[in-house]
Amino acid sequence: MLHSHLTTLNAVSLVLETFCAEGWSSEALLAGSGITEADLRRPDIRITTFQEMQVCANAVALRRDIGLPLGRRMHVSSYGILGYALLTSATLGDALRLALAYPALLGTLFELELVDEGECIWFCASDYRDEEGLRVFNAELCMASLKVICDDLLGVTLPLLAARFTHSAPEYQASYRESFACDLRFDAHDNAFAFDRSWLDRPLPLADPVTHRDMRERCRRQNIEFTGRQAWLGRIRHLLAAQLAQTPSLAILSQQMNCSERTLRRHLQATGSSYQQLLDELRFERAKQLLQEDQMPIHRIAEALGFSETASFRHAFIRWSGVAPSQFRG
């Protein structure tokens, strides 16, 4: 799992807007994510995939079919500088190829590609690399948002020839027809939708070469910063994950990172994270793995995660998941 991947608060904000409008509290949706109400008011904050997926898991627990409605609200304007770069591209093909060049800015959990099959083009999403329990949700969110991006760029609805998904057909297929309006196939080898290849050469209504050059350069610089932060965060996670049983202090971790405690805190803050938050994420991931294996006693799991008492682990796990370890194991 690539939980060191960084992303924006766009998906989280959409989840909160959707559910709070239906009467749910933001507290219930943010539970276990480490994201606060104050964070939501910081436009420059970056969060980890783990945090985003925790909010999404909370949402799916409340409403299983939420992926497609959320995807339909993920417009091109949700992607900041990259969104402006796409809108000002010369053609739809230029815009889509640019989007694929910056997956870190797009924030996708899939490997995206355009597959040319002669008269039609397949926009494919494969190689999912995150929480298995959220595979269907993420496929729905990804494909619906990609379709909306194409419509936004063109200024008209992109007519689809077909769409396919790796999961089995759900009971809410009417929502799929609303999102894709074409022949649907499930239990496929990847997630994808097809359209006539002539659309790739369609000029975009907001094309502007001067603005586009500026936005492309900004995307390049932001991508360097973004991927650099991800690599740095990934190294910290790797060090912590290897020492969960005897968790290093912040001082020791900073020595292992060859920096001062102050520098370590500053870098973590820049990613919207903290030492304790990362430690909780790693412990929660590992705890779920060990509990699902159903072999190790709970008190041994607590020891493996660096807890001095089983009760402390139990309280922490309830805070992370909402249920006790024994209930999670079932």
Strand sequence of the main sheet, in spatial order? 3-4-7-5-6
Basic shape: globular
Instruction: Please give the number of β-strands.
Output: 7
Weakly predicted, low-confidence segments: none
Radius of gyration computed on alpha carbons: 21 Å
| Estimated share of beta-strand residues | 5-15%
**Main pleated sheet:** 5 strands, mixed
Description of the molecule:
This protein has 330 residues and is an alpha+beta fold. It has three domains: 1-63, no CATH class; 67-207, no CATH class; 227-329, Homeodomain-like (Arc Repressor Mutant, subunit A). It has 16 helices and seven strands. The protein has helices spanning 10-20, 26-30, 49-62, 67-71, 80-87, 92-101, 103-106, 135-154, 173-180, 209-241, 250-256, 261-270, 275-293, 298-304, 310-321, 325-329; strands at 6-7, 47-48, 111-116, 120-126, 162-164, 183-185, 191-196. The strands form two sheets. It has a five-stranded mixed β-sheet, with helices on one face. Strands 1-2 form a two-stranded antiparallel ribbon. Helix 1 packs parallel to helix 3 (49-62), helix 5 packs antiparallel against helix 10 and helix 14 crosses helix 15.
